[in-house]
Amino acid sequence: MAVVFLGLYYFQKHPEALKKSERTITIWQPRNVDEDMANAFIMPDVKYGYDLLTQTQKYLGPQAENPQMRLSGNNLKCTSCHLDSGNRPGSGSWAGVTQRYPSFRGRSNAMGSIQDRINGCMERSMNGEKLDIDSREMKAMVAYMDWLSEGIPEDEVENVSGYTNLEPPNMAVDLGKGQQIFTTHCIECHQEDGQGLKHADFKDGYVYPPLWGDDTFNDGAGMNRVLTAAQFIKANMPYLLATRDNPVLTDEEAYHVAGYINSFKRPEKANKDKDYPDLKLKPVSTPYGPWEDNFTAEQHKFGPFPPIIAYYKEKYDIKKSK
Fold first, then answer.
1. CATH superfamily placement of domain 163-322
2. In the beta sheet, which residues pair with residue 197?
3. Model pLDDT for residues 261-315, shown as the tens digit of each residue
4. Which residues form the Cytochrome c domain (predicted)?
5. What is the per-residue pLDDT across 159-208, written as a single tens digit (0 to 9) for each?
6. Where in the chain is the domain with CATH 1.10.760.10?
7. 98-120: buried (b, 16+ CB within 10 Å) or exposed (e) per residue?
8. How far is residue 313's CA from residue 78's CA, in Å, rounded to a whole number?
């Protein structure tokens, strides 16, 4: 009984302690972007960043009204890969992304900023030119990513970033199997010829983007690596059916269809030989040389990749996953 009275006395003298004891733990939830954009007050730079990233072809692509703003070389939008307005785990979510920079980038062998990362996408995935890092457009894109990241706990940043884990099969890509998987799971959206589905008014770009050909990412993009593409496909495709936590395709199926998609022609990026000054850091499925090993160009493009991964682990103690 004395303990009870002491407790009551303590809380009478220290009411703030009672308030602390009543606090609940709030679990961070990603924003409902469409709802917030429609109903919430959004700072103009955040809204402009959202527009740029979700309608890139309109503001920065070949169809931009101002010729000087035609910095993207294709009619994709940034959210062609960064799905659900950049808010979908397993598709390179932008939630928390600005907290991860600056970070070391093997492709340049240097520390890179979030602006550097965006410009890497502009030159490769968008097959275009860099944005001025002090431009209104660059600042707006970063502002939108900051807005998506508000309140995200540090331990959640890693959870939502990147794509998903994939165990590389110890076999080369089977293009026949890849074509079968593409026919079964992909042509409804991306069409049999892989050229995607356009909006009725092409000023709005694509409903579903092309996967190869002239109007897509170039051969220097990360998505042109079979293992990177397979990770993305496993976590996200077929769209609206697969999720990072509940994929539809197996690792092997995602692997074969990624190889099939990347077997076709696409725009060529200049000066790829300057990527990865330290060649030991080059991802094993980078399909263009030079490399710090004697494996063939064919194996770097289509696998099998486990022998290459094992080589770098044994010789350089570098653990690679893509």
1. Cytochrome c-like domain (1.10.760.10)
2. 208
3. 999 999 999 999 999 999 999 999 999 999 999 999 999 999 999 999 999 999 9
4. 44-168, 173-265
5. 888 899 999 999 999 999 999 999 999 999 999 999 999 999 999 999 99
6. 33-149, 163-322
7. beebeeebbbeeeebebbbbbbb
8. 34
Contacts of 183 (CB under 8 A, 6+ apart): 192
Say which CATH topology domain 33-149 has: Cytochrome Bc1 Complex; Chain D, domain 2 (1.10.760)
The whole-model pTM stands at 0.90
Residues 6+ positions from 214 with CB-CB distance below 8 Å: 74, 266, 267
Residues 241, 246, 249, 250: what is their CA dihedral angle, to the nearest 10 degrees?
180
34: left (phi over 0), alpha (psi -120 to 50) or beta: alpha
Query: In sequence order, which residues have a C-beta less than 8 Å from that of residue 89 and are 6 or more positions away?
Result: 30, 159, 160, 243, 244
Q: What is the 3-state secondary structure (H, E, C) of the chain?
A: CHHHHHHHHHHHHCHHHHHHHCCCCCCCCCCCHHHHHHHCCCCHHHHHHHHHHHCHHHHCCCCCCCHHHCCCCCCCCHHHCCHHHHCCCCCCCCCCHHHHCCEEECCCCEEECHHHHHHHHHHCCCCCCCCCCCCHHHHHHHHHHHHHHCCCCHHHHHHHCCCCCCCCCCCCCCHHHHHHHHHHHCHHHHCCCCCCEECCCHHHCEEECCCCCCCCCCCCCHHHCHHHHHHHHHHHCCCCCCCCCCCCCCHHHHHHHHHHHCCCCCCCCCCHHHCCCCHHHCCCCCCCCCCCCCCCHHHHHHCCCHHHHHHHHHHHCCCCCC
Q: Which residue type does 234 have?
A: K
